[in-house]
Specification:
Helices cover 23% and strands 20% of the residues. The protein is an alpha+beta fold. The strands form two sheets. Strands 6-5-4-3-7 form a five-stranded antiparallel sheet, covered by helices on one side. Strands 1-2 form a two-stranded antiparallel ribbon.
């Protein structure tokens, strides 16, 4: 710094950089009128700067952004457009297909009737012996029935497309 008056970015008045008596700064971290205390070399543990040494200022001062004006409506739209686009892509590629799949699965489970072959969430395969609103009795083997919650059924196997067993 050369000692010539510099306009203070906070108070809009000229000040001499590095002067100790001028307290114009409202934001001392960004003001150009305050000296930067950055040592010219790295100090070792326990070492302090010598009395007459002045630190070299090698960092350029950062100036505060002035309040220029309010953001325009077009600027906000340009900033929001990528976020909206990402949401639309996620909706059509992830959310909507999953909702369709869930709706189709719920329809299959609600349409279960006696004699259908089903797969439970645990992987058990059997024929439906009895259907309630909440429970389903599944026959896994002759004279072996299991009661399962209807919502835990994973799939209803279509008898026309099912492969025959190898027994």
């Amino acid at each position: 710094m050369n000692g010539f008056p510099v306009p203070c970015p906070m108070l809009s008045k000229p000040v001499i950089p590095g002067a100790k008596s001028q307290a114009c700064c409202l934001a001392p971290a960004i003001c150009v009128s305050r000296p930067r205390l950055i040592p010219s070399r790295a100090l070792r543990v326990g070492e302090t700067e010598k009395q007459g040494e002045s630190p070299t200022m090698f960092i350029t001062p950062a100036f505060a952004q002035t309040a220029g004006g309010q953001a325009s409506g077009a600027g906000i739209l340009v900033q929001m457009a990528p976020l909206v686009l990402i949401f639309v892509v996620f909706y059509f590629l992830l959310i909507r297909p999953q909702q369709k799949k869930m709706k189709e699965h719920k329809g299959k489970i609600d349409a279960v009737k006696k004699g259908d072959q089903v797969v439970t969430g645990g992987g058990l395969v059997g024929k439906v012996a009895r259907v309630d609103d909440i429970y389903v009795d599944i026959e896994l083997a002759p004279n072996m029935k299991v009661k399962a919650v209807k919502s835990t059924l994973a799939d209803v196997i279509d008898p026309t497309t099912a492969k025959p067993a190898n027994d």
